[in-house]
Fold each of these.
Amino acid sequence: MSVQHQALAARTAAQTLATATRAQKDAALHAMADALSKAETAVLEANALDVARAEQAGMSAAIVDRLRLTADRVAGMVDGLRDVAALPDPVGDVVRGWTNANGVEVRQVRVPFGVVGMIYEARPNVTADAAGLCLKSGNAVLLRGSSSAADSNAAVVEALRDGLADAGLPADAVQLVPGPREVTDELMAARGLVDVLIPRGGAGLIDHVVRHSVVPVIETGVGNCHLYVDASADPATALAILLNAKTQRPSVCNAVETLLVHADAAPRFLPDALAALADAGVTVHGDEATSSYGPGVVPAVQEDWDTEYLSLDLAARVVNSLDEAIGHVRDHSTGHSETIVTDSASAAQRFTAEVDAAAVLVNASSRFVDGGEFGFGAEIGISTQKLHARGPMGLPEMTSTKYVVTGSGQVR
Amino acid sequence: MSVQHQALAARTAAQTLATATRAQKDAALHAMADALSKAETAVLEANALDVARAEQAGMSAAIVDRLRLTADRVAGMVDGLRDVAALPDPVGDVVRGWTNANGVEVRQVRVPFGVVGMIYEARPNVTADAAGLCLKSGNAVLLRGSSSAADSNAAVVEALRDGLADAGLPADAVQLVPGPREVTDELMAARGLVDVLIPRGGAGLIDHVVRHSVVPVIETGVGNCHLYVDASADPATALAILLNAKTQRPSVCNAVETLLVHADAAPRFLPDALAALADAGVTVHGDEATSSYGPGVVPAVQEDWDTEYLSLDLAARVVNSLDEAIGHVRDHSTGHSETIVTDSASAAQRFTAEVDAAAVLVNASSRFVDGGEFGFGAEIGISTQKLHARGPMGLPEMTSTKYVVTGSGQVR
C-alpha cells in the first residue's frame, strides 16, 4: 500500500478520533496495552530476528542494545500506554474565550492535528509510546520506524491495532509505514494528507527531514548544551551540577556537552572538577587555559565546540567574562538547554534574558529539562524549534486549536 | 547587500530588541510614526512612481488601487503604529509556571522569535503594519514587498528606520529586502538566520513559499469559506448572514465563497436569497437544484467548488443532509472559516465538532473572523495552518516561549 493510501486511511480514522470521547480513547489505550501484553512472545520473537540481523550486519553494541527488547521493556511499553490513559485529555480544553460587544461568543478550543507522521530510529519502544500519545491527543499516526527494527515494529503495531479494533476504534489510527528509503520522501511530500511530521533521532535524520519536508515539521532533540560556571559560582554547587548533567545519562539530548568557566572561578573550580571528571571516566577536550588546571586534558579542536558527543566526553573552555560566555553559547548552541551556575542575580538575569534556547537554567541540572521531570506525564520529544512548541512536548503540544464562534444572527 | 548579510544584521538587531523594555519599544513606535508622518510628501512622491509604472504596465485597476497611497492612507499607517504602541507587550508574559517537588521553579515565558521574514504583495501599508507588529513583539523584520511597490516601500522603510534611530533602537530591526525574484529564494533558504517566514498574498504566492521554504512558515489567508443553511435555519437570519458574509467586503479571505443549502430549507430560502443576491450584484454559480429556485443562476462547474473568488461571485449547491454538507466542506475547505446557520443544537454541535478549520461559526457572519473583531487590536494575518497559530494572529502569536528553570543546586 502506498504512503498516500495509508495517509488517506489515517485521515478517515482521524475523523473518528477527533470526536471520540476521553472514555473511548482511554478504553482503547487499555485495550492496546492488553493486546501488547498478550503479544509479548510474538514481539520478543520478532525482535530476536531484528537483533540477529543487526549483529550479523556488525552494528555497534550501543545500537543493538537500543534495538533489543526484553520482557521488562515490553512491560514498560504496556505500562506506558496505561499511564497515558491516566493523563488528562487535552482535546476540548478551552484555551481562552470571551464574548464580543455584539454578543458573539468566541471560544478557542484544543483539537487534534489530524494525522501525525513520526520518523524515528532504532528503539522499538518509541512505536508504542508515540502511538499512545497520538491516540490520546486524538491524532492518527503513521509510524516510520527504522528498517533495523522492522520486525519488532510490525509485531508491536499488529498488537496495538488489535487493541484498537477490540475497543471499537479504527485500527488505521495506528499504522506502520514500511518499505525502502523513498517511502520517507513520500511521507515528507504528503502535504495536505499528513498534518505534521515529528522526526526523532540523530542530528542527521532531523536535519534531513527539516530540509526536505513539505509537511510542517516539529524539530526535536539535538542538544549541544552548555554549562557556564560564573565568577561568583559556588564551586561545590557547580561541580555537583556538572557531574550530574554530564554523567547521569550521557546519551541523552539534555546532557551537557560544553563547560565554560569564568577565569576568576577557574583556579578554585577547575582543579577539583578535572579530577572528578577523570574519576567519572569523562574525557575533557579543553582549551589551553583549561589544560593548565589539571592533567589529562585533550586539546580541543574547533569542531569540539559544535559536537553533541552523547558520550563521556566534554568540551571545556575558560572565558574572561559573562559576555564571552553568552557569545560562545550564541555561536554554538543548538537552542536546547543552557545552564548558568552563579550567585549573582544580575548575571543570572542577563544569562536567562540573552541566551536564546528552549530552556535556560540557573543553578540546576539541565537533566531536569524533560517532560517527565516537568510533570507532563509523558513526552513525545523535546522541541528545539521556535514555532508551535519549544522544549518538552506533552499531550497539549500534540494539538492545534479551533475558534468556535457562536452568535444569534449577528453581522458586520 | 545580500540577503545573508541583511539577515545577520537583523539577528544582531534582534538581540537588542529581545531585551528592550516595553517603554523603549513604544517610544520607538511613536518615533517611527512621527518620522513617517514627516515623510508623507516623500512617500506620496515615491508611490506616484510605482503607480505610474503599474499603469504603464497595464496592471488592473484593482491592483493599482491597492498600490495607491493617499494622505489618508499614510495617516492610517501612522495611526496604526501608534495603536500598536498602545497594545500590551506579549514579551515576558509568563504563560504558565510551577514549582517541582524538589524546589526547582519552572516558568514558561514569552520571547520574540528573533528575525521574521514577511513576503507580501502590492499593498504598501503592509510594510508599516508588519514593521510595527514585529517591533512591538521584539522581532527584527525583513520585508520582502512586491517589486511593483518598490519605491513606496523604500520611502516608508527609510522613514521607519529614521524613527528607530531617533529612539535609540537599531535601524536594522526593520529592513527592506530589494532585488530580483531570486532574492525571495534566498530568503526561503536562510534557515538558522531567519526564524519564521510569513507570506501574505494570493494563493499562488503562499503555496510557493510553503512548498519551497526551508525556513519555518506560517501559512496565512487563503479562504474558500462555506456557509451552510441547515434544514432548521431561520430564512431571514440565514439571508442576513449570507449577504453580509458575501457582499460586505468580497475581496477578503473571510468572505463566503460557497453556499450550501439543505434541500428542506431550499424552497423557503433560495427564491428570496437568489433575488437578494442578484440585487446585490452577486453572480451565483449553482448546481441544477439551485437554478430551479430562481433565474440567472450560472451553471456551476467542478472548479467553482474550489475557487476563492474574492469577488461578487458565489458557488451554490443544494445538499440532502448535514452529512453531505460536512462532506462537501471537508472536500473543498481551505480550513479558514466555515459557517452553519441552524436552529438545531445537535446540528450545530456536529458541524463545529466535525468541520476542521481555523474558525467554525454558528449563526454569525464569517466576517467576524478577524484580529480586530476578536479584539486583538492588530493582526499580522490569519493563519490557516495547524502548527503554532491558527486563525487571526495578534501580538502573542508573533512570539515563541522559553522555559526559565531556577534552582539552588538541584540535580537528578
Amino acid sequence: MITRLSSLFLRTLREDPADAEVPSHKLLVRAGYIRRAAPGVYSWLPLGLRTLRKIEDVVREEMNAIGGQELLFPALLPREPYERTNRWTEYGDHLFRLKDRKDNDMLLGPTHEEMFTQTVKDLYSSYKDFPVTLYQIQTKYRDEERPRAGILRGREFVMKDSYSFDMSDAGLDESYAAHRRAYQAIFDRLGVSYAICQATSGAMGGSASEEFLAVSENGEDTFVRATDGSYAANVEAVVTQPGVEKPIEGQPEAVEYDTPDAETIATLVEWARGEGLDVTAADTLKCVVVKVTAPGEEPELLGVLVPGDREVDMKRLAASLEPSEVAMAEDADFRKNPFLVRGYVGPRGLAANGVRVLADPRVVPGTAWITGADAPNRHVVGLVAGRDFEVDGYIEAAKIREGDPAPEGQGTLTLERGIEIGHIFQLGRKYTEAFDVQILDESGKRSVPTMGSYGIGVSRLMAVLAEQRHDDKGLNWPVEVAPYQVHVVVANKDAAAMEAGERLAGELDDAGIEVLFDDRPKVSPGVKFKDAELLGMPFAVVLGRSFADGIVELRVRGGETLEIPADEAVAKVQELVRG
Amino acid sequence: MITRLSSLFLRTLREDPADAEVPSHKLLVRAGYIRRAAPGVYSWLPLGLRTLRKIEDVVREEMNAIGGQELLFPALLPREPYERTNRWTEYGDHLFRLKDRKDNDMLLGPTHEEMFTQTVKDLYSSYKDFPVTLYQIQTKYRDEERPRAGILRGREFVMKDSYSFDMSDAGLDESYAAHRRAYQAIFDRLGVSYAICQATSGAMGGSASEEFLAVSENGEDTFVRATDGSYAANVEAVVTQPGVEKPIEGQPEAVEYDTPDAETIATLVEWARGEGLDVTAADTLKCVVVKVTAPGEEPELLGVLVPGDREVDMKRLAASLEPSEVAMAEDADFRKNPFLVRGYVGPRGLAANGVRVLADPRVVPGTAWITGADAPNRHVVGLVAGRDFEVDGYIEAAKIREGDPAPEGQGTLTLERGIEIGHIFQLGRKYTEAFDVQILDESGKRSVPTMGSYGIGVSRLMAVLAEQRHDDKGLNWPVEVAPYQVHVVVANKDAAAMEAGERLAGELDDAGIEVLFDDRPKVSPGVKFKDAELLGMPFAVVLGRSFADGIVELRVRGGETLEIPADEAVAKVQELVRG
C-alpha cells in the first residue's frame, strides 16, 4: 500500500521545539515522528511508530535466532514480588506506585526480574527444562528525576529485556556469549556505531557485565577506549595501572613544615617549589574524607587517598563501594571529629583515629608524598607509603584522564561520550534464591539455577539512530528501519509528471518496496525537497525538471544524486534497497 | 522456524485454576496461553502472545484497508486533558490515578478521546486535511470492580480504538459505515459468531450507535434478536411497542377498595380474582419510586409506571435517564415523604405531590389499571390513563421478555447473552468542542469537526474465540490466529518415526507452514494427544502405529481424522491451511 503525503497524518515543523536540546529530539519532533504528551512521555505518530516497530522486529529476529522465547508481562504489577526482593523500597522515587480501588499497592514495572523468576519457578521443575531464555519487548515505566532529550530518556519507554536460566555457571557463560553475539548482530544490522564496554556489575551482583554504548557526544555516559582498540570500559569499570613499588631503604625521613595558606593542592605545590623541591601536583597526596553507609548500618568515615593531580570521581567511588552509599563528609562531621583538620588531613591522623583508609592503586609501598600533617598550617614532605603510613586497601576512585595508560598495556586511554543502548550481565542467583527456585538436577538433588540479565533500550535506539545519522537538513534512516524505503517526489507541475509519479509509486509498491509518495498538488518543489530531507527516507526518486526528457533523479539521503532514465528507476531502487 | 515442545516455555495443567468459572478462562490457563499476575492482570505466555499478535494483525489490516492510520499514545497520561472533559472525575473508581515524583496527577488511560482530539487540533487546521481516521492498538487500564473471567474482563487489556474526524455529518455517516464494514470483515475473518445490536449512545452523546456482541452464554450483556433475524439490539436499546389507545368514554368509574394484605402484585391479583374480576398481573400498574440525580443537581424523586407483570430493569432505566444517575428510593425517602405509602403508591398521589411520573409505553390513554390508592390497605380499580391520571412522559424501563413483539413488526424477540467485542458510534462534537478544535472550511469559516468513535476489545477477542470454539478436550483456534497452523505429533517410539517427524516438520516449515512439533522423547502418545487437543491447533499430523506402513493421521481439531500416505502430508496440510 502506498502512503501519500496528501493524506498522511503529519505536520512537519520548521522550528525546533522549545524544550529540545539534542538533535534527535529536535528532529524527531520536527519531522512528526513523536509528540510530547507529558514530561518524558511521548506519543508515536504514524512515521515514528513504523520505525519503532521495525526496530522491535530486528531485535525480535535476533533474539529468536539464539533460541529466545517471547512472552509479555503486564506493566501494572502487584507489590508483593517486589517487596520480596526489597525493590519496592530500593527503587525509591524512580518507581511509579499506585493503589487500586481496593487499596492494594501496585506499581508500573520498571524491570521484570521478579516476574520472570516467579514464572520459571511456577512452570519448571527439572534440569531437563533448562537452559531457557525468555524475553519480552515491553513498555516500561521509570519516574526519572530529569526526563530529557525526548525519547532518549523517557519515563514511559519500550525495552527488550531477557533472562537466561541455567543449571550451571558454564551454561550461564554460554547464554551470556549468545546474547553478546545477538546484541552485536542487532546493533550491526541497525548500523549503530557502538563500543562494548566492560562495566561494573553494581548492586545487581554477579560477575561478567558489559554495556553497549552508542558513541555520541550527547551521551550521558563517559567511557574509555584504548588507543589500540582492544579495550573499552565505562569509567566506573576502568582498572588503574598500579604504581611501581620502590625500595623504602635509603629514602630520607619525613619532615614536617609550617605551610601557611597552603590549603589547596595548587598552593601546596607553590609552597614546595618555593622550598626548592622539584615537584608537581602528582607528588602530593590528597586525603578525601567521605561517609559510607552500608545497607542497614550507620554511616562510617572513610579516607580516600589519591594523587594530588587527580580529583575523586564520585561515580567511580560510588561504583567501587556499592551496595553501600557514599557522600562527602560535611562540616558537621569535621566538627564532630576534631582530628580532621580541613585542608591538612593526612593518612597518619586518619589511621591513628581508627578511620579506614583506602588508596588509589598508584599509592604503592615506597612511594613518597607531600601531604597533610593533621594540624593547622602543617604539611609533611617525604611521607613514604609502607613506612610512615599503611592503607587498609586500594580503591578505584580517581578520575580517569585522556592519555592514562590502558590497564593491560593496550596503549593509552581516550575518553568518549556514549548512550547506553544495551547491557548484558551475569546476574547469578540473587533472584532465584529470593524466590526459592529449586530445580531437580541430574542426580536428583535440588539446585538453584543461575541467571543472566540482558536489556536493550528499544525506543531509545530510535533516538540514537537519529542522533548518529542526521545532518543539518534532517534525519537519515538506515534502510532496515526507515518508515519507508523510498520517497517519491513529484516536483514538476505537469499533469504528466503527477501521472508518472503515480505509476512509478505503483510499480515500486508492486515490487515490494515501501513507498512514501509526495503527491501534494499545491506544494512547491522546494518545500517537498525540504520535507524529504527532514523525514529522512534513505532514497528519494524525484520527478523534476528533466522529467520531460525521461530522466528522474535518484537521491541517496546524505549521499549522491544520480540522474537515470525513468524506466530504470524501479530496478535501481530495488538494487539500492537490497544493499 | 519450528517450535519444539521439548523446549517451548509451556506447562499444561490437568486441573482447572481455582478462580476460573468460564471455559475460556479455564482453558487458556490450563493450555499455558495466559497466567494471572494480579486480579484482572495477566501475563501472555509464548502461545498466547502469538495468538494475540495475530488477532492484532487482522484488526490492523482491516483498519488500514479503510484508510485508518495507526499511531500509538502513551498509557501514562497527564491529568489536564481529562480534567478539561471532566472525565478525571466522571470515571470515578474505574480510573487508575497516580502521582509522579513532582506530585503531578497522572492516570493510566482507560480510553483516549482527549489525546486523539488534542493531537488532531495541533496538527490540522484546514478542511483539506479531512476526513481523517486514526487508530491505535494499545494497552488500556480500567480498575474494574469485579475483574472476572480471565482476559474477558481485565484491568489491563489490549484495545483497538479509532476515531474519525469529518467536516460534515454526511462525512461522519460514511466513516461510520466504513468502520461497520471493517468490523464485519474482522469478525468474519476471525470466525466469531456475533450480532450487530442497536445500542443506546449513552453518556457519550451522539446518534448512531451499534454494538458487536459475540454470542455466548457466559456473556455479561443481554441482547434481543427478532425471530425474523432483521433486528438485534441490546436490551437498553430495545424500543417497546406502544399499547393501543382506547376510548375513555363509556368506561366505568374508578372505585377504591379496602385490600388488606395485598401489598404485592401477586396478592393484589388474588384479591381482585376473589372479587370476581377477570384480571392478571398485566392489568395492574406498578408504581416504582426512584431517585434521579442529574449532573451537579440534587436528587429528585421520580415515579416509574410499568404493567404489574413486568419488573423495572434498572439497566434499561439507567440507560434511559443518562447522564443522570438513578437509584431506588430508600426507607428514608419514604419517611421524608409521608404521601408515599409503601405497597399502595399510585399515580394520583405522585402527581398530587409534584413528583414527576414517567410511564411504560403500554400505559397509553384509555387503558384501565388496578393500582395503589395512596393510603394503607387501599387500592383502586378501573383507574384510566388520560382520565384519572396523567403522565409526564414515557420511558423505556420495563424488563424485556422472550416473546415480546419486535419493535417494527419483525416477529417476536428472543433473548440471548453476548460479550461486547466492538462498539461503533457517532460521537459528534462533544470532544472537538471541549478542545475548541476550529477548522477552516471551504468558505474560509471556522467549523468544528464531528467525530466517530470505534473500539474493539482485542485481548478479549482471544477469550471470545476460546469461549465459542472449545470442546471438553480443549481449545480449537481458527487457522488465521492459531499460534501454529499444524501440530506434528510423533506417537511412535521407533527412532525412524522421530526422524520422519523431524523431516516432516522441516518440510512443512519450508512450505511456509507454522509448525509446532511434539518431539518429546519420553512422553506417552496419550499425553501428547491430550496436549494437542488442549492446545488446539487447527490441524495435527500424527506419526503413530500405522507409520510403519507409510501412513500418517491428519486430524482436524474438532473434526474428522484422515489416514493419508506420509508423503502426501505436506500437500494436504497446505491445502487445509489455505482453506
Amino acid sequence: MLFSVQVEVTLRQGVADPQGATIERSLPHLGFDGVKGVRVGKSIRFDLEAADEASARAEVEDLTQRFLTNPVIEDSTISIVAGANA
Amino acid sequence: MLFSVQVEVTLRQGVADPQGATIERSLPHLGFDGVKGVRVGKSIRFDLEAADEASARAEVEDLTQRFLTNPVIEDSTISIVAGANA
C-alpha cells in the first residue's frame, strides 16, 4: 500500500535561527509589519510502500529520528496519509 | 488579532532536487526500502498581527510571492489559523 508522507523538521525552541531572524528583521523595511517569531524549518515529502499505516508510521519515525533530524537541535512532525503525493 | 502562519515552499515539479535525490539514494543502503520521490522543501512559520483572516491571507500571499519564494522554480502552500504558534 502506498502512503504519502510529510516530515516537518523544525529547530527546537531556544535554538538560534539566523535564517528566521534575518527574514523577521527585513520584512518591516519591505513594508510588511506585524510579523513576529519567524522560524525556518524543512519539509521533506516522499511516498512510502508499506503493508499498513502502523508499519508505515514505525518506519518513518525510525528513519526520521536516525537520518532526517539532528535530535539535539531539531524536532520533527510526521504526517502520513494513504495514497501518493500529488 | 494574532494568526499563526505556515508557508511551505516546495520545488516545482520537474525542477531537480539534489538534496531529495541524495536522501532517496541513501535510504536503501541504510535499511529503509520502499521510499520513492523524496522532495525537500522549506517550512516557514511565523505569527502575524492582522485585522482579520482575509487581510492576513492577502498580506501573507503578497510577502510569500515577493520574498519567500522564487516563483520561477518554487511553489508555495499557505496555511493560516487563528492564535499564536506553539
